[in-house]
Specification:
With 332 residues, this protein is α/β, with parallel strands linked by helices. Helices cover 34% and strands 20% of the residues. It folds into two domains: 244 residues, TIM Barrel (Alpha-Beta Barrel), CATH 3.20.20; 61 residues, no CATH class.
Length: 332
């Protein structure tokens, strides 16, 4: 299985490649990708350098053009597709049909991967994208159980990639209406659930901290409690007489224990989330997954989950805790 890792800048790209990533996915420094944080992503020269670094080591670069443009600015996405082809990107990752259509018609030799934001969860949807836009791979949404992934691998007309580690999203991938409601900014095109300009921290007299998003109290942290970046879905709220994570606890997906089942199902690529994360995250997570995949490839029958692998991953997880998420549904 291919290991696909994130990079939000050139040092992270180098770290991913050096730690064993088979492919690295990146974005331009604009709204064509779903992680348009200030100071993140690549200009043309940086991406040219990154592609050269990867190709010199027989690795691949995938360019995320995975947001949904409005009709007035669609040409910017078309130009991004053209630039990806000019730079020699190995594939684009896209969801919007007009973007896929432009790539299919104008750059037929450049591989097209259907983004997780395409929300394709059935064989029929995958077949349509394959027949209409010539996709060569699809990234499955993080809402499917292991059994559903296994069935799709049997019926899909294209190879499938799944998220293996990183942040979860309980909403429609990248298009959260909670964040849009609170800030007036689309997480789709602005690339972040909580734009930094709306975030305010308050130091209180007892050394606790409040964090607000556009004036809305999202969480309150005690003096000795680690404080995560505020998002609406992972905030704590008063419900009746209790205050708790009413929507979702801060946690990260970790499917390492499912590696044998995913391999046996026919999954072709395991994807790590986190283009907004730093070099240490990329290096550690890529290194752990590289070891695990290689050990499974050498001896599937002898493969065992190592405790030190999970400990290393947990240290870089949200809230320092991990979950199998929808992959494990006892009621399915």
């Amino acid at each position: 299985m291919q290991l696909v890792c994130p990079a939000g800048n050139l040092p992270a790209l180098h770290a991913a490649i050096d730690a064993g990533a088979d492919a690295v996915y990146v974005g331009f420094r604009d709204q064509t990708n779903a992680r348009a944080f200030p100071g993140l992503n690549f200009d043309m020269q940086e991406l040219r350098d990154g592609i050269a670094y990867a190709h010199a080591r027989s690795r691949k670069i995938y360019l995320a053009l995975n947001t949904y443009p409005d009709s007035a600015r669609l040409d910017a996405w078309f130009r991004a597709v053209d630039q990806a082809a000019e730079l020699g990107a190995d594939a684009i990752i896209a969801a919007e049909m007009a973007v896929l259509d432009h790539a299919c018609r104008h750059h037929p030799d450049m591989a097209r991967h259907l983004s997780v934001q395409g929300s394709a969860t059935t064989a029929a949807a995958l077949r349509y994208a394959h027949e209409r836009f010539g996709i060569s791979r699809a990234v499955l949404p993080r809402v499917l159980s292991l059994q559903q992934v296994q069935r799709l691998c049997q019926t899909s007309p294209v190879p499938l990639e799944v998220f293996a580690f990183g942040s979860l999203c309980i909403m429609v991938e990248g298009r959260c209406h909670l964040s849009s409601y609170v800030t007036g900014k689309s997480p789709n095109r602005h690339g972040v659930c909580s734009p930094a300009s709306f975030v305010r921290w308050e130091e209180l007299a007892d050394n606790s901290r409040n964090v607000r998003l556009n004036g809305v109290l999202i969480d309150r942290f005690s003096p000795d409690e680690p404080a995560g970046y505020p998002t609406v879905c992972k905030g704590r709220y008063r419900v009746g007489e209790e205050v708790f994570h009413a929507l979702e606890e801060p946690t990260s997906l970790n499917t390492l224990e499912l590696l044998p089942q995913l391999a046996q199902a026919g999954v072709v690529a395991l994807k790590v989330e986190g283009r907004q994360r730093g070099v240490a995250y990329v290096r550690t997570v890529a290194g752990v997954w590289r070891q695990a995949i290689d050990e499974y490839a050498r001896s599937a029958q002898q493969w065992r989950l190592r405790e030190n692998w999970n400990n290393a991953l947990a240290a870089h997880a949200e809230g320092q805790q991990t979950t199998l998420g929808p992959y494990h549904r006892a009621w399915h």
